Amino acid sequence: MMEMRTRFLSKLTNGEVEEYLSRNDIIFVPVGVTETHGALPLDTETVVAEALALRMAEETDGLVLHNLPYFFAGGTVSAKGTVQISIRDGIDYLYQIAKSLLRQGFRRQIYVTCHAPAYLTVSPVIRDFFEETKCPILYIDMVKAADRKDLSFNFMEAFNDICIGAYKILGRLEDVPLNVPESHSVTYDIQSMLQGMKKNPANKLGKYALASGAVGSYFDEPSDHMVTPLLKTAEEREQHADIGVKALEEFIKVLDMPSIVKTLREVDDYTQKDSLVKYGWLR
Questions:
Q1: What is the DSSP letter of 208?
Q2: For residue 9, is pLDDT > 60?
Q3: Picking from 86-100, 104-118, 209-223, which range would have the lowest pLDDT averaged per residue?
Q4: Half-sphere exposure of 74 (CA within 13 A, CB side)
Q5: Secondary structure of residue 112 in the 3-state scheme
Q6: Which residues are CB-neighbours of 14 under 8 A, at least 6 positions away?
Q7: Contact yes or no for 124/41 (Cβ under 8 A)
Q8: Exposed end of the chain (fewer CB within 10 Å): N or C?
Q9: Is the pLDDT score of 283 beyond 60?
Q10: Which spans in the chain are helix H?
Q11: pLDDT tens, 207-265?
């Protein structure tokens, strides 16, 4: 695999991108969110997606199109820091990015998220893009993909460590603050969070579809969204980060990214040489 100065598209020169596209066509697109996240920064779930995408790109000689932090957040708009974008606007924006990337030469596009309601935005793009262009692109939702028995950790139990580990992977660990006091936005008591959630009758209906897809509702308090660990020292933060980095790297290893990008090429070849021919849809 060729050594590269960076895997992030926007940090490359145009000449470096052209050189890359002369030998490969893989780009990972981490789709993020900016929302309240307990004692962790607002861009936590963006950072997780970017760290995943970076490690995936390193495994497969791909590039990463990052800096996409503003999409549908969900029920966290009770928090002043949450930036809410409508699902429809997010779909349209992401669709235009996908079309641009294809025109540039990135035929194998892989969209990566770690935000439960993200599928509401990304999945329609994946399907409609294929219907228009007949080019299959892929969506990897960590929330869904981590629900597997061959991982040594439970995703939800390891989630906060994974978030902190992602900051370390991107060289931003010091962005994770220490000694954040409990407040309207932060609780370290899971029972307090659960009690807050019980007050909202929407939680009785949320089980009938995937996250945010069953019924519209909002969290009563920003602290109802997520219990995060109380980090008192830099050493504690480092310990959580190391656990999270190991979990992320195990997840990517189990996925077998080289096999995934190879299969995506096979899906494209099958579509062009079999499906479109069979149904007379060749352009």
A1: G
A2: yes
A3: 209-223
A4: 23
A5: strand
A6: none
A7: no
A8: C
A9: no
A10: 14-21, 44-60, 87-104, 119-133, 142-145, 155-169, 190-198, 234-255, 257-270, 276-278
A11: 899 889 999 999 988 998 989 999 999 999 999 999 999 999 999 999 999 999 999 99
Cβ(26)–Cβ(57) below 8 Å: yes
In the sheet with 63-64, reading across from the earlier edge strand, the strands are 63-64, 26-30, 108-113, 138-141
CATH of region 9-278, choose from 3.40.50.10310, 3.40.1570.10, 3.40.50.300, 3.90.550.10: 3.40.50.10310
pLDDT of 282 reads: 67
Output 201-208 pairs: Cβ under 8 A, ≥24 positions apart: none
Residue with tokens 């992030």: 8
Cα separation, 28 vs 212, in Å, equals 25
| pTM, entire model | 0.96
Q: What is the pLDDT of residue 204?
A: 87
SS3 143: helix
Angle at CA 248, nearest 5°, toward 247 and 250? 65
pLDDT, average across residues 96-116 = 98
Q: What are the domain boundaries of the chain?
A: 9-278
Matching residue, tokens 């692109």: 137
Percentage of the residues of the chain whose pLDDT score is greater than 70: 98
Reduced to 3 states (helix: H, G, I; strand: E, B; else coil), residue 49 is: helix
Q: How far lies 253's CA from each of 24, 124, 148, 230, 267, in Å?
A: 21, 28, 13, 30, 22
